[in-house]
Amino acid sequence: MEMDRTLERSRRGSAQRSKRGVDKELKQYLDQTFEPLFKEAREQDPEQPGIPLSTLVDKMSSAGVMSRIPYQGRTRLVEQYDDNEDGFISYEEFKQLMLSERPRLNMSKLSTFQKFILGVVVTVVPENSRKKPPESYIEAYSCCPPPIFMILVSVLEITVFVVYAIELKDTKTPVTASSGVPIYSPFIYNPERRYEAWRYLTYMVLHSGYVHLIMNLIWQLLLGIPLELVHKWWRMAIVYMLGVIAGSLAHSIFDSYSYLAGASGGAYALVGAHVAAVIMNWEEMQHKWMEGAGCRLILRIMLSAPVRLLLIFIFAAADVGLAIYKRYSGEEANVGYAAHFGGALAGVLVGSIALKNLDKKPWEKILWWVFMSIYLLLVAFAVLWNGFYPDFPETDWTPCCS
């Protein structure tokens, strides 16, 4: 027992000595790099309580320090250490802030869960952002509520699929890999019953075969959960649901005689949301993207803006191309490719509006209003088209579910 206590004291002493050594190195760096700035300010004006925060931030940015401080630490720099709101900070206050933030800069201090969150986050936000590094999302992330929107939607779609699969089991149209959709369902988009407005949304819970369901689940879980971790459930709900509605509206215009089932509109809205994230953070995703070596270089290249867009385009083009081929080759007549286009376009437009922007620039604020206007105009056009286009199938006015 005595030996165990001795070893424990030894470990604690080693850790404390290591911490003191790191703190000493940091103090030396600060004394060499930043203390002259404060001395110069005192020589020019001895009565000045320090230097302006704006001057310090500029100096820290040029020295590469700001890019290593989590966003919450930068907020503390401005708020916590300027109690009298005079816009100045003393050298002692500045040094204390740097020492208090040092543990946050050590990635080895992160828990396993935090490292997992960071690994997911860097697939959505720029890993090398100058303005707000991914560590800031770890500080802001909370398990209340957890990222459950995409999971709940997926569970709902699976449940409805299983219920109808059991119902269709002993009929002429049982559920198979690529067929078996209940066209009598009040959830499906039916071009003869367009006045039942809920169908423009509820068609997402139905799927034509289990392959259709599985593919949509893979798309929306792999793309949606990382986005939801960063942007929260309610933003994802807006993007996903408006993508579903945009998909059915596009389908009603370009394929006006066909039924529609499946969550492809929502899944492609998530694809479009990733495109929107790349567009809104293009400059940050290009920061030092060709630097490094080995696996780190490969990761930086894979997460850079052009490569992300290229990969998204390749996968989306292949899937849409296959859908169009099946639709017109006669191999599969019920593929609503227009819903894919509509969902993807809504994802880009709504994603640019609803998702978080790491560093909103003046031109991006203008783009926000442009995309908002485009989306509203397209929806208004589609609604008017559904109301006045004369070549839709004859309306079925029989009571629903009769």
Summary of the model, kept short:
The chain is mostly helical and 402 residues long. Helix content is 63%, strand content 1%. The chain starts with a helix and ends in a 14-residue tail after the last helix.
| Rg of Cα set | 28 Å
Strand content bin: under 5%
Order of strands side by side in the largest beta sheet? 1-2
Query: Taking all residues together, what is the mean pLDDT?
Result: 75
| Sequence of secondary-structure elements | HHEHHEHHHHHHHHHHHHH
What structural class is derived from the secondary structure elements? mainly alpha
Report the span from N to C terminus: 80 Å
Give the number of helices: 17
Q: Regions with pLDDT < 50 over 5+ consecutive residues?
A: 1-8, 104-109, 126-142
Main β-sheet description = 2 strands, antiparallel
Based on CA inertia axes, which overall geometry fits?
A: elongated
Count the beta strands: 2
Give the % helix: 55-70%
